[in-house]
Write a structure and sequence with these properties.
The protein is built from 4 helices and 45 strands. Helix content is about 5%, strand content about 60%. It has a 22-stranded antiparallel barrel. The chain starts with a helix and ends with a strand. Residues about 1-20, about 100-115 and about 390-395 have low confidence and may be disordered. It is mainly β.
């Protein structure tokens, strides 16, 4: 039969139209025949791809061709590739993915694992590339996430979606961690309690976290320390300190030890207050695991932190104001400050796993802190108006605004202990994953506070009273208190999938009782995740719950004044836990661009707040009123773009909008942690021709906090500090590393897995950010806010090695 050319073209076109796409489906499992969830399944040479669901199932459609290459990849597993020859119709392709035994720090992808049960996973390997003054801390990484803010680079404290520093729960190996209570500034704080060299897994939630986490209103950070795979030794040395990590694993017994030492002299020397800085921060941590058999496991977690801060100030000169209203503040100091913070943490747990469906853990933990803040500092200051032509000062000379003296005194000591006993369990019944636990906590506080401040302006003591010399501020405390808490939680995670959608539902309740105020709390929480099958690049989440902020010691202290004007601390036994009714709606969209994976996440939230304990920030110190005196709300929108802008290198850009409001004394005002906008960037890159040379950048631009004058409530007056702007960069070069051909040279350097040298530039743009204000009052009781600036541009060199 003969065909003319037009007829042949029509026939070929018809066959092309009638040809159906190849429908590929199957299941991905690991070596233990467990489903590999959220593995990436893609077609080689195209942008077509999908992710496996919670049961490891997947399906996708592709145009037919002679050879179709299907590539399977997932964090922690070796990449698997399968080729389909002349595939047609529906094809079932099941795959087993073996575990990855090689190091994955250069190829792991953060964020593509779905946000399940309100918790998001982060890659611990990113910590080592983060350029920050704390040396790659978890908290510094978190502050680049949407809704998380910190306006002090020397501190590990952070606020989440309008909450205070104290509204964030932190766990290490399932043990709740507490921070020192008397820290007033980043200079005192030292090292974060989380050792980044020992971190194996990071889970974080900025809202909608499940019932297993404690009564905090803002966030939950869950850290799991890793178990070493074999004998290992690594260390880091820089101009600001050093660290050493040792690990060993014999199969049934593993141990990991970390030692850190830090000296911030060079960093603190960039502050405007000049003097003799002598800080010393030491930290030792251990994580020991014993697995005698398949059913039993024992874990020991230990931490010793010894931080001292000695300082003899000499002088300070600060220029502030605007070009039309410039002022100069000069102080000469005398005296010194000596602070000591000792923290001890110990936890022992035993886990019994009778079968694959049931796990029970019993644990004991203890937290001890011994804090002492002592200073006697006096100063003579001059506050001048700088002369500026055209500003009303015709001769351009300026004038004196205030001259005075002051003296500050403190002898504050706090000893605290928190002892916990807990029983936790987990049971899997078909599609249900049930978790439960009961926690008993005993806490004791020994508080001895004595601090005062005297001021003299132009020869007049403030306050100016005819009967004698008075202090402008004084406070004393002599409290000993013990209390008990008990909590119970139960939650169920239900996984459900159909041919239309995948669904994950987590619902639970947390019940707690505190005998200090005889308060009983019930906290229900629900988290829902939904993924449509036909649009599986989209994932939708909804969460709601009633969250409480169970007060810790600082929060239920309040100041009273006797007839002589002396202030002293009392404890409020009628205090109630602040309450937050929260709603969250989120959407995730994954896509490929430049043949690389990307993900966009948006979250909208609303928090209705009641029974709030109002507070004010003074640098890092939070001063609570100790009473339930306000209510309000927080609402906002967070967005994040995450992906590999260059292959094998993870980066993200975040943007946040937020509005807060509290009603205090009948006046509507913003919360102290109100930051209306925030933009942050974490970017990593390498040079294709020099893959061992890497570049990283961390940038933050966020709105300033709202502040008040000392001992003044914001219902009377408040103002907003300048925006926080900071860029840190890091450049590193790997001197010794894994060879590209897999064969190590037989010489001395074969003993090293990695030797990397790096250069960091902190505060690249040399911006003067404000941490707090020093208030000067003249004889007319006019107050001037003199900014306390944070660190300026600094350089740091570091060397890292691992064996």
């Amino acid at each position: 039969m003969k065909f003319t050319l037009p007829v042949l073209i029509v026939l070929l076109s018809t066959l092309a139209v009638l040809a159906e796409n190849v429908k590929i489906s199957g299941r991905v499992i690991d070596s233990e025949e467990k489903p590999v969830e959220f593995a990436t399944v893609r077609i080689g040479g195209t942008a077509i791809g999908t992710n496996t669901d919670l049961q490891g199932n997947y399906n996708l459609s592709v145009a037919p061709k002679d050879t179709i290459e299907v590539i399977f990849s997932c964090i922690g597993f070796k990449q698997v590739s399968r080729k389909l020859i002349d595939a047609k119709g529906e094809v079932t392709l099941n795959v087993l993915m073996p575990s990855e035994s090689a190091e994955l720090s250069e190829v792991e992808v953060i964020g593509f694992r779905q946000n399940i049960n309100g918790m998001q996973n982060f890659d611990a390997a990113t910590l080592r590339t983060s350029p920050d003054v704390s040396g790659g801390s978890v908290e510094a990484l978190l502050t680049t996430m949407p809704g998380v803010n910190s306006s002090n680079e020397m501190s590990s404290q952070y606020s989440v979606r309008g909450g205070s520093f104290d509204e964030n729960s932190v766990y290490i190996n399932g043990v709740e961690i507490y921070r020192p209570q008397l820290v007033r500034s980043g200079q005192q704080e030292g090292l974060s309690i989380i050792n980044p060299d020992m971190v194996g897994n990071i889970k974080f939630s900025s809202g909608g976290f499940p019932a297993r986490y404690a009564d905090k209103m803002s966030s939950a950070l869950d850290i799991t320390y890793r178990e070493p795979e074999a004998l290992e030794l690594s260390g880091m040395a820089s101009l600001m300190g050093a660290s050493l990590t040792f690990g060993q694993n014999s199969g049934k017994f593993s141990q990991l030890h970390g030692v850190r030492f830090k000296k911030n002299n060079s960093l603190l020397s960039s502050l405007e207050t000049r003097g003799e800085y002598d800080p010393s921060y030491f930290d030792y941590q251990t994580n020991i695991t014993l697995n005698p058999n398949d059913k039993w496991s024992f874990n020991l977690l230990g931490n010793i932190a010894l931080n001292t801060y000695n300082f003899k100030p000499a002088d300070r000169e600060t220029s502030f104001g605007t070009s039309q209203d410039a002022k100069s503040f000069k102080v000469y100091f005398d005296g010194q400050e000596k602070d000591r913070f000792e923290t001890y943490v110990g936890a022992l747990s035993a886990t019994y796993k009778p079968n694959r469906a049931n796990t029970v853990t019993f644990g004991l933990s203890g937290f001890l802190t011994n804090e002492y803040v002592s200073y006697d500092i006096s100063g003579e200051y001059w506050l001048d108006q700088a002369g500026t032509a055209g500003s009303g000062d015709s001769d351009g000379i300026g004038g004196e605004l205030g001259v005075g003296k002051y003296m500050e005194h403190s002898r504050n000591r706090l000893k605290a202990s928190v002892i916990q006993a807990m029983l936790k369990g987990q049971t899997v019944i078909k599609r249900n994953n049930i978790s439960y636990g009961i926690i008993y906590q005993h806490e004791k506080f020994h508080d001895r506070t004595k601090e005062w401040e005297w001021r003299d302006s132009a020869g007049y003591s403030l306050p100016t009273l005819p009967e004698g010399v008075h202090l402008i501020y004084n406070l004393s405390s002599k409290q000993d208190v013990a209390a008990n808490r008990i909590a119970f939680y139960a939650e169920d995670s239900y996984y459900f999938d159909t041919d239309k959608f995948y669904l994950t539902l987590n619902g639970g309740v947390r019940l707690s009782y505190w005998d200090f105020n005889k308060e009983f709390l019930a906290s229900p929480r629900i988290n829902l995740s939904f993924t449509p099958v036909d649009y599986n690049r989209w994932n939708y989440r909804f969460a709601t719950g009633l969250y409480y902020q169970s007060p810790f010691y600082k929060e239920y202290r309040y100041a009273k004044t006797d007839p002589l004007g002396n202030s002293y601390i009392e404890l409020n036994r009628d205090i109630k836990s602040p309450m937050s009714l929260q709603f969250l709606f989120a959407a995730d969209y994954t896509f490929r661009m430049f043949n690389r994976p990307f993900k966009i996440t948006t979250e909208a939230y609303y928090k209705h707040l009641s029974r709030l304990i109002s507070y004010e920030y003074d640098n890092l110190q939070i001063n609570y009123t100790g009473t339930n005196d306000s209510k309000g709300y927080i609402m906002g929108l967070d967005a994040k773009l995450f992906g590999q802008f260059v292959p094998g290198s993870d980066s993200w850009l975040t943007f946040s909008l937020m509005k807060t409001q509290q009603t205090l004394n009948g006046v509507k005002v913003p919360l102290p942690s109100d930051q209306r906008y925030s933009i942050s960037l974490f970017f990593t890159d390498y040079f294709p021709k020099f893959p061992k040379l890497k570049f990283s950048l961390r940038g933050v631009f966020s709105d300033g906090l709202t502040m008040t004058a000392p001992h003044v409530q914001r219902s009377e007056s408040y103002f907003r500090a300048p925006a926080y702007k900071r860029v840190d960069i890091g450049l590193s070069y790997q001197l010794v590393g894994a060879p590209t051909d897999g064969v190590r040279p037989y010489n001395f350097w074969r003993h090293f897995k990695d030797i990397t040298i790096g250069l960091d530039v902190f505060n690249l743009l040399d911006i003067s950010n404000v941490s707090s204000y020093y208030w000067v009052t003249d004889v007319n009781n006019i107050q001037y806010a003199v900014p306390n600036y944070l660190t300026r541009r600094q350089f740091n060199i570091h060397l890292y090695f691992s064996l």
